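Take a specimen:
=====
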Amino acid sequence: MPHLVILYTPNLDRAVSEGGADMGALCRTLCGAMLAVRDEADRQVFPTGGTRVFAYPAAHSAIADGGAAGIAAGQGGDYAFVYMNLRMAKGRSALTHQRVGDALQAVVKAHFAAQLAARPIGITVQVDEGHEVFDGKTSSLHPLFNRG
C-alpha cells in the first residue's frame, strides 16, 4: 500500500519548453525510486504491484505574500509549491523510513533543481506510517522571508 500523493500549484503545469515541470516524468521517477529502496535485509521495501504515485494540481492556491518578496528580490512573484505525502503500512524500521524519505527527497530535488535556482518554490516531502516519520523540506521560497 505505498501511495505517494503529490499536490502542486498549477503554475508548474506550463509546457516543459516554457520551464514547466514534467509531472508525469516525476511520477515515474518517484515510483522507480520507491521500488529501488531496500531494507536492512536487502529486500525490496515496497511491493511492485502496490506502489502508486498520483499527482494533482490544486484547483485553488495562495502562497505566502502573493509574490511581493520574490519580486523585490528579483526572483519573480510566480511562487510554486509541491507537497508530497507517502503513506505506507506499519511495520518498517526507522532506517527504512529514512531510506525511503531520502530517496524521494533526492528525486524531487533533482527534478526541480532548475526551478529551485530560478524561482521561489517550496517542496515538502512527508512519509507517514500512522504518524509522521519523515518530514524533509527543500525551498528557495523561505529564504525570502528569513532575511534579518
Residues 69 and 145 are 7 Å apart (CA to CA). The chain has a mean pLDDT of 90. The helical segments are 23-36, 68-72, 94-111, 113-118.
